[in-house]
Design brief:
Blueprint (H helix, E strand, L loop, with lengths): L21 H30 L5 E7 L6 E7 L7 E7 L14 H9 L2 E6 L16 H16 L4 E11 L6 H7 L6 E4 L5 H15 L4 H19 L4 H7 L8 H10 L15 E6 L7 H11 L5 E6 L9 H5 L3 H9 L9 H10 L5
Parallel strand pairs: 3-4, 3-5, 5-6, 6-7, 7-8
Antiparallel strand pairs: 1-2, 2-4
Helix pairs in contact: 2-12, 5-6
Length: 363
């Protein structure tokens, strides 16, 4: 440093020799940096807690089921003693706990805002629940759902005149059967509901392959393998016969094979004409699991027009999540689920559920 006269300033005799204070400066900087990280972490943690604090009261309970007790969650509106309306949740395929890994919680909040409770339960064998969901047929699942509704109708905090169903995907073979068997239900909301098991399986296979950029030869080979599997199903092949065929590069478990064998003829078309309640069909235009065009055509053909409302969401996946999140397994989906869970869904979806349930008259 130079002084005002332009000559070099004399060294300060009180200053420490060069280099002696560097460790202290480094330590101070490190402490500041760690403090910033901690502050950010605490702030992020507080934000995660805040955005995952949903506006409903949660009760964990056990509901008597037709085969075994059901481990359930009841999500009640924040205020009041009821009686509330109730939305009964019906899962899609695969193992699922009561919250579907928290994916349902923003939906429960929307229903709670409309004055409805929500109830959902873990599939048998999931999250400590007794039984094995792979032992169930679609008819078994319908009977399980009916048992939950009968349980709910006995509760003082539930209005038995205002009970509706929300179901997704495989629930397309379950929820309509329940609605046909229990004509007093208020409404049915079906998200990406499948119509025919075999056609849905082929659509899903081709849609996934094409989305991943598979070649025509890869697609042809996959269809050949599928044809072998269908032949074995028609022949009611045992698991040992399925394995011996050697066509599946990633063989399913014995329980899964038996589940498919028991359910592969599922089709909802015979049930739909029996429905007499309002139906909201929610479809994502980028659904890779279900042919939503077929679903819409089928429901429009078999339901009375005054009963059916169809809402399609562009750039939305099977679960009405933003398409890139689900279809491309985008890392942003995990971050969004943690830091902004309501933003996982296509814009307008949660509002649609709240408004549809809230506008239903008592039947």
């Amino acid at each position: 440093m130079e002084n005002a006269g332009g000559s070099a300033a004399a060294p300060d005799p009180a200053a420490a020799p060069e280099g002696v204070d560097r460790p202290r400066r480094w330590l101070r900087r490190a402490v500041v940096a760690v403090g910033c990280v901690i502050a950010l972490a605490v702030g992020a943690g507080a934000w995660v807690v805040y955005v995952n604090d949903f506006a409903f009261r949660r009760q964990e309970l056990t509901i008597p089921g037709p085969a075994q007790p059901l481990h359930a969650v009841l999500a009640l509106p924040e205020q009041g003693d009821g009686p509330f309306g109730l939305v009964v949740f019906v899962h899609g395929d695969g193992p699922a706990d009561a919250t579907r890994d928290s994916f349902y919680e923003p939906i429960w909040e929307s229903f709670a805002e409309a004055g409805y409770a929500s109830v959902s339960w873990a599939k048998p064998g999931v999250a400590g629940a007794p039984g094995n969901w792979l032992d169930q047929t679609m008819h078994d699942r319908a009977g399980e759902t009916e048992a939950v509704i009968e349980w709910a109708r006995q509760r003082a905090d539930i209005d038995p005149r205002r009970i509706g169903l929300w179901g997704i995907s495989q629930a397309g073979w379950v929820a309509p059967e329940v609605a046909a068997n229990l004509p007093g239900l208020q409404f049915l909301i079906l998200v990406g509901g499948a119509v025919n098991w075999l056609r849905q399986g082929e659509y899903n296979l081709l849609a996934e392959l094409r989305h991943r950029g598979a070649t025509e030869s890869d697609i042809a080979a996959a269809l050949d393998r599928r044809a072998i599997g269908l032949r074995l199903l028609r022949e009611n092949a045992t698991y040992e016969q399925y394995l011996a065929a050697g066509y599946d590069p990633d063989p399913m478990s014995e329980a899964r094979w038996n589940f498919v064998r028991a359910n592969y003829l599922s089709d909802v078309t015979a049930v739909l004409p029996r429905l007499e309640l309002p139906v909201l069909l929610v479809l994502g235009d980028d659904d890779l699991n279900v042919d939503v065009d077929e679903t819409e055509r089928t429901y429009r053909a078999l339901l009375a027009p005054e009963l059916l409302t169809v809402q399609r969401f562009p750039d939305a996946s099977h679960s009405i999540a933003k398409a890139s999140y689900e279809n491309d397994r985008d890392w942003r989906a995990t971050a969004t689920a943690l830091f902004a869970p309501r933003a996982l869904y296509a814009p307008g979806y949660l509002d649609l559920l709240r408004d549809y349930a809230g506008s239903r008259p008592v039947r």
